[in-house]
Amino acid sequence: MSTILFSLNTSFLLNLLGLSFHRIHFMSILICLEGMMLTLYLMMSSITSTMNIPTTTMLPILLLTLSACEASTGLALMVATSRTHGTDHMKTLNLLKC
């Protein structure tokens, strides 16, 4: 395994650990998810550049587009929950309340 792929795998795992262990604020969850998506984008773009298959060149751009949509939706949800609940702490959110 090359050093670039090793560092990208390590970055993905660190973001995954941050997502699973640091669930205090909604913003930290969104940052960990965005880091995971950007790491996946870098992995996919490095793998497609080494393979030289023309059908896989569109996949990194599609993933980057989907991650931008995910980030905007997450920020909109964070603004909506901070307006209704007054904070972005995950302990104050109750999923059973409508």
From TrEMBL:
GO terms of biological process kind: ATP synthesis coupled electron transport
Enzymatic reactions: a ubiquinone + NADH + 5 H(+)(in) = a ubiquinol + NAD(+) + 4 H(+)(out)
Listed transmembrane segments: 24-44, 56-80
Pfam families: Oxidored_q2 (PF00420)
Single GO term (MF): NADH dehydrogenase (ubiquinone) activity
Record carries keyword tRNA-binding: no
Keyword RNA-binding: no
PANTHER family per record: NADH-UBIQUINONE OXIDOREDUCTASE CHAIN 4L, NADH-UBIQUINONE OXIDOREDUCTASE SUBUNIT ND4L
Full protein name: NADH-ubiquinone oxidoreductase chain 4L
Organism: Zootoca vivipara
Lineage: Eukaryota, Metazoa, Chordata, Craniata, Vertebrata
Gene symbol of the encoding locus: ND4L
